[in-house]
Amino acid sequence: MTKFVLCSTMIPLPPPHVFLTVVIIFLFLAFGKKKRRSTNKDSISELPPGPKRLPIIGSLLQMRGASPHQALNNLAMRHGPIMSLQLGEILAIVITSPKAVMEILKIHEPAFAQRPRLGVVESLSYEYSSFTFSPYGEYWRQMRKICVLEFLSTKRVMSFRSIREQEVWNMIKAIGDFDEKPFNLSDLMLSVINKVIARALLGDRCKYQEEFISLMKEVMLLSGVLEFPDLFPSMKFLQYTSRVKLARERLHHKIDVILNYIIEDHKAKLESVINNENKPPAGGDLVDMLLHLQKTSDLKFYITMEVIKNVTMKEPLSERAQTLSMTQELFSVGTESSSIVLEWAMSEMLRNPRVMQKAQLEIRDHLNGKSLVKESDIESLGYLKAVVKETLRLHPPIPLVPREARERCKIMGYDIPSKANIIINAWALGRDAENWINPEEFLPERFLESSVDFKGNSFHYIPFGNGRRICPGINYAIAGIELLLAQLLYHFDWGLGDGKKLPYVLDMEETFTITLRRKNPLVMIAKSRIKFADEGTLPA
Ligand code: HEM
């Protein structure tokens, strides 16, 4: 089958006869639309400059060859930091300058506080109850509030400390057991991140945890595939050519079954507690909290089963729709990105032994022979924190931040039509020589005396986005990443699994889906440096 590369993800084109039919119908529709457009006000608007557009496919051919974040950056160098691009039926406005970011995510933010509708969200979320992709409005506001209060507030993130410390410690022991033989560090790190979030979302004793995690891994694989029909949303019949859509729907069904079991399990537990005192169980997990809210809150929206499954809340959908979408949603958005940062941080330090040694020295000095790194130790590790920031600069896990224009607006003097897709190239911003000295070099020192941070104050450094849809999981993510990295650096000295000499041979190939991760896993050898603590010394 012919393949078209966009997002370095392969977009399978439909077979030639289907393609030809599509072309003919599209020309017919396009001709019809052209006539109408001459009377449309948008036709006289001044769009940002951009590459030439061919009929039907627009500028799709310009995206060939490179990964999308790179292809878009290459085009931006020719056409400017605010650029318009026609991708099939989709009009995209690509942003690569801090000034345009500030206009979009600060000055005119409400006009851009929406995300585009994507096929992947439609087929994997509950009746579009995903709040990450829900339209800007009351539902999104309430869902975000619940999500932050019940799961991502500083207090809640702190309360997951013992889960993090235990799971990371289990990983350190597992690495010790490899006894200087090669092992897949990438898999191990992802598995810890998965376990921590699964325990925080579903509780410690959830008997469906393993099934849930393994289905969520499939979600991540299928989430990143952007297909040909996504670029022609008005042609509904194209959806029938999509095999990925079918696979997603089957997967969604399997997840639904497991989430129903999980909810029933939690409901039974919760009933007994609420009967006694009208409070959720102390230290309850997220599903407990949502079920409790579903019963007791007087919010304008009902927390539906879909919401709890996607972990969310929504206007009444169907009866059964009442409870799981947030669980699924937080798991999928929360795990992949953190494990990606860990992989790139280790990769960059392996290529830059000076940085690794400096980070190890800082931790080993600070811990002074203690057998275990605890979260309370991390605050003093300024260099380690700078390593994480520098990793996020060079390798933002979500390199292209997606937004949609809710209304017509002017940005840097250009007209942005309503419904245009906005693509903010966070990857390009992090490597722009106008904003950074020696941008391609991994230099954590640049953050030591700098006020630049990822919490929304800097428009040239936006690994977590910015504005009202900024990532609400920053504290959660950073706590896990720093602890895991500190333990890896403290306990072990590192080498490559194939025995080749560092730093020259480490490949840094990327693979782009929605996220940008290492193409090949990190296969490593770890030499123990610090005597392990007994399990008894771990926090309860
Ligand atoms: C290093 C790890 C992470 C990175 C780099 C990251 C990055 C991002 C980015 C770029 C956005 C879009 C922001 C925007 O449009 O301005 C986002 C949104 C979001 N993130 Fe994260 N994220 C990470 C971890 C997490 C974690 C751990 C969670 C939760 C457990 C989480 C939950 C969310 C949610 C719910 C949204 C949607 C917010 C909304 O639309 O209102 N993220 N994230």
Structural features:
binds protoporphyrin IX containing FE, Cyt_P450, Cytochrome p450, alpha+beta, membrane, 3-stranded antiparallel beta sheet, 540 residues, 14 strands, disordered N terminus
Mean pLDDT: 81
CATH class of the domain at 137-399 and 432-528: Mainly Alpha
Helix content: 40-55%
Structural class computed from helices and strand pairing:
alpha+beta
CATH architecture of the domain at 137-399 and 432-528: Orthogonal Bundle
Q: What's the end-to-end separation, in Å?
A: 55 Å
Shape: globular
List ligands, each type once.
protoporphyrin IX containing FE
Q: How many strands, which pairing sense, and closed or not: the largest β-sheet?
A: 4 strands, mixed
> What is the alpha-carbon Rg in Å?
24 Å
The count of strands amounts to 14
User: Biggest sheet, strands in spatial order?
Assistant: 3-4-10-7
Beta strand %: 5-15%
CATH domain topology of the domain at 137-399 and 432-528: Cytochrome p450
CATH homologous superfamily caption of the domain at 137-399 and 432-528: Cytochrome P450
